[in-house]
From TrEMBL:
Name of the protein this chain belongs to: NAD(P)-dependent oxidoreductase
Stated family: Belongs to the HIBADH-related family.
The 6-phosphogluconate dehydrogenase NADP-binding domain, residue ranges: 3-162
EC numbers: 1.1.-.-
Organism encoding this protein: Paenibacillus mendelii
Keywords: NAD, Oxidoreductase
Pfam families registered for this protein in UniProt: NAD_binding_11 (PF14833), NAD_binding_2 (PF03446)
GO molecular function: oxidoreductase activity
Amino acid sequence: MIKVGFIGLGTMGLPMAANLLRKGYPVTVYNRTPGKAGELTELGAATAATPAEVTRDVELVITMISNDDAIREVYYGENGILGAIKPGTIVIDSSTISPQLAKQLAADTSAKQADFLDAPVTGSKPAAESGTLVFMIGGDEAVLNKIKEPLHAMGRSIIYMGPSGSGATAKLAHNTIVGINIAALVEGLAIASSGGIDPSAFLELVNSGGAASKMAELKTPKLLARDYSVQFSLELMLKDLRLSSVLSDGLKTPTPMLETAKGLFQMGESKGLGALDVSALGQCYEEWIGKQLSDRKE
């Protein structure tokens, strides 16, 4: 069975690596912040002290890192992936990064006679835990065909998007819709709450009618319970919207709704909500309308 290296054990990476281990893959893990590998070592994972150490011993390297700067550190830094990679190794990055960086990683990996795929995911923490993520892939489709089995250990669907950078582009376009959906959900809930409508009844309506969405389904229980534990953090959503804004500017594509949603999430971050779940955006509206968006008693 193919040997896998997994770098990045955060909200998404840890359950993804756990699912590989449960499916019998030998996995070596590394995380920039120490102390996150305990659960994985109990499942049989080996640990490494650096990204380079991970890379030397495996045939497939998967990275799941928070942002472009962190990706550059892991790939190009001292003891990074590209300094240790062997010819024939396949590297996939499942982070949400800029398409420009994805293309650069593909070129620099190819120069080492190895292969790179940009392979971001959608599904947030619940799907990472259940192994039902959706992968969107940019790069050589023939390379993708070699590693579909380990991807299916972590996800339910693999969608090929096109050449290098296409997966990253698709993810930013996708998360633009997600961010707008969340903003629309809490804004509609604010209107209903201001009008004296019971939040539970209103969200039942949303999930039963034309306003239904995956985000409404996921965030309804969190909004009603005022549960802001992280499935996908507000600060990461804002990071993705900023990347999408840069991308759309380069593509000369007008995005008025993206810019509005980005502004709302910037307000949330300025209120200190960045480390909470995206549903915490509702706290901004609660401040503006002077009442809770939940019937939970504080």
